Task: structure prediction
Amino acid sequence: MDQVPQLPVTNSLGFYEIRFESIGGLGAHLAGQMLAEAAVLRMGLNGAHFSSYGSEKKGSPVKSFVRVCAPTQQVRTNSPVERPHMLVVFHERLLRHKEVLSGLYPDSIVLVNTAHTLDEMKKRLGLASGTVAVVDALKIAVEEKTRVNTAMLGAIARLLPFLESQAMRDTIRATFEHRYPQLVEANLRTFDRGYNEVQKETLHGTATAQATEFVRARPQLGYVTAPVGGVIVNPGNNVLKDLSAYRSGFIPAFDRTKCIDCGQCDLVCPDFCFVWEKTLDKRQRPVMSLKGIDYQYCKGCLKCVEACPADGALTSIREVEGYAEEHTVKHSWIPASRHSVSAVATRAS
Amino acid sequence: MAVVRKEELSSAAPQTVALKTGNEMAALAANQINYHIMGYYPITPSTEIAEFLDEMKAEGKNTVHMIEGDGEHGAAGICYGASTAGGRVFNATSSQGLLYSLEQLPVQSGTRFPMVLDLVTRTISGPLDIRGDHSDLNFAVHTGWVILLARDPQAVYDMNIIAVRVGEHPDVLLPVIVAYDGFFTSHQKRRVEFFSDNDAVQRFIGQRKQPYVTIDPRHPISVGGYMNDPDLINNHYQHKLAMDRAYQVIPQIFAEWAELTGRQYPLVDLYRMDDAEVAVFLINSAAETAKDVVDRLRAQGYKVGVISPNILRPFPIREIQQALRNVKALVIGERADSVGGYGGSISHEVKSALKDDPSNRTLVATRIFGLGGKDFYDDEAESFFRLGLEIAHTGKVEIPYDYSDVTPGDPAQAPVQVLEPLRKEDVTLGLTSVEKDEETGQLKVRISPPRALTERPKRIVSGHGACPGCGIFSGVDQFLKGIEGDVVILFQTGCGYVVSTGYPYSSHRVTFIHNLFQNGAATLSGVVDMFEERQRRGEIPAGEDITFIMVTGDGGMDIGMGPAIGTALRNHHMIILEYDNEGYMNTGSQMSYSTPLGNMTSTSHIGPAGRGKSFQHKDTPQIMAATNIPYVFTGVEAFNQDLVRKAAKAQWYAKHEGLAYGKILSACPLNWRSPDDMGTKIVETAVNCCFFPLYEVEHGITTITYNPEEKGKRVPVTDWLKMMGKTKHLLKPEYADELKAFSDEVERRWVRLKARHESPVL
Result:
């Protein structure tokens, strides 16, 4: 580190700030850590790194924050990055949540891990200014048998000239060689491919069009409206949640024609995705029949495929966009005993 | 904060620059101190300290003897005992962990045995919140320990090493707490420096010299004899004098440390306070955020500053008086309240210090902020300064005590019922039935096939945030398929609880209760007995019938063993269902007592000096069977008919006789390091290798309900161990000893179980 790099732009406190939007398991936390380590330990800058924490598990949304500043400056702030100079989206599905893009500056860089083209992503993001960049980090990671995080780091290094690629590569090596030496070369290749394969375009709209104020989330309930004691008076409302972002590329496909209604899938599904209905069998006796899968809750664990004894009734397929929406069978959440059997009898006849 | 200037560092003790979190720095300090013993128990967000220390131990970097307690109460006892025996002792905890060990702490300080406890501050329940405020610290201040505060990761390292010297100082002899902010400091990486060489730390701390120890037969002593009046007051006066001396000793040790490292710690950190007319008083990380705001307001011409103590016990009264002498208005921001006390505890201490200075004219207001880890942004800090400026301007404190930035809520967003409650007829379907054969006394169980069981409405519904492939919910749901009628469910703290109840959401369609990590069995005892008592008094119709089920992880059965056994001995009409995923998965895969020998967990690493978990797995069903409750069983989701049948029986026994206990082995793909789709197969193999036999103990009579040997399905334990990343190292030749010890133990327990199956008297 002969010369400490100059930051292209900083906020009023002197920081260049990066926010990662990801889901647990993709390695965004580690990527943020490696980025901060490269900047602080190998490039002579000062900085900080931390992630958002809750009780959520693998597959749930997570944010990671990196701040870098001049070496002489102290880091004192502890709050999350609300206005990122660079926003890195690790999972395209997160773009469904509008707040992911919250707080961008007119000239912020937005990098998305996606198989879509740059033009498609520009359209989807609908930004007026700043820089949009895309990289198919999942494809790179699958081909290199790594995770998307080092591909994203490669892309970031390309987009941020002040980051020294060699410092990043050295950090990746140092991170993996201790515990997973066999992963060093693959991760360096992943980094290089991210660096080489990222595509970007700077938009030239009016600068004022883009600046989006960060909207701080407020609680749904407050001290006037919340039932006392933290009691939840509408339990079961978790069914409102959409868990599809937990999936990592695979999904069970259901073929009704091959299903024998044995119920084995229902016994092992941790997320209660199987939708059953009461129908009449050939002898007009009421029986339970598997209607389909409610993909809103499916996390893609594929335990059901493993448990299914009927050849081809449940199979694992690579999830393509729109498949789940097209094939989902929604839970009614009304107990089958309240179904009028005659109303559904047509299916069995 | 202490600013690092390389050129100021002593040339004799080179330091390394790194980017590390507060927890990493705490572990690094403990590693360099090389404590004799760390007694601890996992709790977020302090758990990482033990994990990192254990990891370094496995790499051969320290020789700290790590003891994971059966709960924080046990861990604190381990630490106390270890400290009486004369070596150096370390512990780390947070929140409920501090509260559960609370009664140990004044005993330790009152009997004058030093140790260091890192308190990684976190909100205390309830409701449960894992993030950071100072409500736990609020309790710690009354324990008689020295309390050092660490505002950032660098200070965590420094204070941890200083703490050893302070506590062991012959004029002090007190245990020391180092308190730093959960997540804000514990999990944030900052640029830090530490001694490159452990010797520098060893030279600084020297040897512990304890006047009395409990392991010297030539110098016998009695520790903890009972003491009534008039002696106790004198003992406490000694304690008070020791704390007074700590007030003198701490600046000397801070000065020594500054000499050595270049990092200065005054007793009270003052930021631009020299000519400040308005000040904000804050503890730990929030004070740093406020300093940025001071710079901004100073640039606008406002004379403002931040005052923030580096020690809390002894309370630095003189320095606070001095610093506030010319301050017109002070706003004290507190990350904890003492409800009904009209000002957090710290406010009263600051006000009291000011009252003792007759020349002081400072006007004081308190604002409670950031509870439950709510982020403290610069705009909120600025609002504190603005309030102070207004008070200074008007000369009046309109509202001396209030909360900052609370939300009334929008009535339009009031909770709406998403799911209709289940009616009795929705859940009473006759899918399972149990009858007692009056002649043989045996229960006759009839269960429907899986297809028909799908009609049972889910009492726990979709939308929970468990990991893909989690075995908890499939296992618990299978069990509930066997339960007819209304249920009330209690979960002890654990993954199953946290992922199903993130406020204001819940996956529990039926009535659900969570209380503490460890006393769910006691809590549900109270619920079920109140139900019965109110029914007896006619307040609830005689026909009403509810099955009460407590669900717990294996961790909950470690810390909650006492309440579970108490509930069993009292034989309440309820069910305890344990999902055993062989570790504290909710806090990040620390070993539990149910973790098998040699398993790799985050507190039982493998490496050149680490062999995985050091003792055999707990046999909880046999412990529960020894309480002579009417029904004990084991089950796995891979044998669903077996499990549903046992559920139906458990319900019958809970209704007619008393406590039923069952353990389900439950896959955790994340921490077992196994594919998401393999959970069912892995627990099936655990049964077939006889690690987890399927059996029941009914009125003391053992029946193996599935014998893999008779079915020709028995496989060696290695077939099971090789399926999981946490165990496959056991197949390597260098772990032959562990593998043999483990398979011998599996065989020993299996043979004994078969003997019990054969003989009704065993």
Chain A touches chain B through 92 residues (CB under 8 Å).
